[in-house]
Structure formats: structure tokens, C-alpha cells
């Protein structure tokens, strides 16, 4: 499920989101289940101008991604973070933020 959070009116044939965002979202939707045990509940695009996309997991936390960066790299970092750092703490996590290059943090 993709949730529209844009809250804007658009005309016919007007580009709402970039093709890069669509490609990234599709690729990440494939990678997350392949590289992790996570299941995605919904995908949120906060605004047309924002350089981010939010994946809400069935575990209840949100993962923030930067769609201008490589999806495969971010999925690999996410997988490492989940297996090496977070491990059994998934139920207590509110979010994982992957938007900053070479940095990932969670709360």
C-alpha cells in the first residue's frame, strides 16, 4: 500500500513524483523482504519536494530512506544494522533513519 501524504491538487498528466522516486520505491520494496525478515505494511511519500520515502513495517516501526542514494547499498546497511546491532530489539524500535549517507540511526 502506498499512502499519499502530498495533500495537493494536480492536473491531468502533471508529474506528481519523480521517476527516480518510483524506481527507488519499487526496488526497495523488492530488497527489504529479500535482505531482511521485515514485511512492509505501507509506503509513505511525505511530499513531492521531499527527498525521502518512508516504509512502515508490520513490526510497527518506520524506516526513512533517501531515494537519491542507491537502494541496494541502503538495503545492505539496513540488513547489517538489523542483524548486528538491533537484533532482538525490533519490538521497541520507533524508527530507523537511513537518510544520511554512511550513517544509520534508530530510536
Would you kindly provide a written description of the structure presented here, covering whatever features stand out?
The protein has 107 residues and is an alpha/beta fold. Helix content is 31%, strand content 21%. It has helices at 19-35, 71-86, and strands at residues 2-4, 40-45, 53-57, 62-65, 95-97, 105-106. It is globular.
Brief descriptors of the model:
107 residues; 6 strands
In brief, what are we looking at here?
By secondary structure, this protein is an alpha/beta fold. The protein contains 2 helices and 6 strands; from the N terminus they run βαβββαββ.
Helix content: 25-40%
| String of helices and strands | EHEEEHEE
Overall pLDDT, averaged?
86
Global morphology: globular
Helix/strand class: alpha/beta
Global Rg: 14 Å
The biggest beta sheet is recorded as: 6 strands, mixed
Q: List low-pLDDT spans.
A: none
Beta fraction of the residues?
15-25%
Strand order in space, largest sheet: 1-2-3-4-5-6
End-to-end distance, in Å? 24 Å
Question: What's the number of helices?
Answer: 2
| Strand segment count | 6
Question: Layout of helices and strands, plus pairs?
Answer:
Blueprint (H helix, E strand, L loop, with lengths): L1 E3 L14 H17 L4 E6 L7 E5 L4 E4 L5 H16 L8 E3 L7 E2 L1
Helix pairs in contact: 1-2
Amino acid at each position: 500500500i502506498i499512502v499519499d501524504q502530498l495533500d495537493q491538487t494536480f492536473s491531468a498528466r502533471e508529474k506528481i513524483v519523480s521517476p527516480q522516486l518510483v524506481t527507488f520505491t519499487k526496488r526497495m520494496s523488492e530488497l527489504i523482504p529479500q535482505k531482511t525478515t521485515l514485511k512492509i505494511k505501507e509506503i509513505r511519500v511525505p511530499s513531492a519536494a521531499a527527498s525521502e520515502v518512508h516504509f512502515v513495517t508490520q513490526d510497527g516501526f518506520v524506516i526513512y530512506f533517501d531515494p537519491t542514494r542507491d537502494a541496494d547499498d541502503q538495503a545492505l546497511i539496513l540488513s547489517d544494522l538489523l542483524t548486528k546491532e538491533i537484533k532482538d530489539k525490533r519490538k521497541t524500535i520507533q524508527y530507523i533513519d537511513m537518510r544520511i549517507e554512511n550513517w544509520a540511526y534508530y530510536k
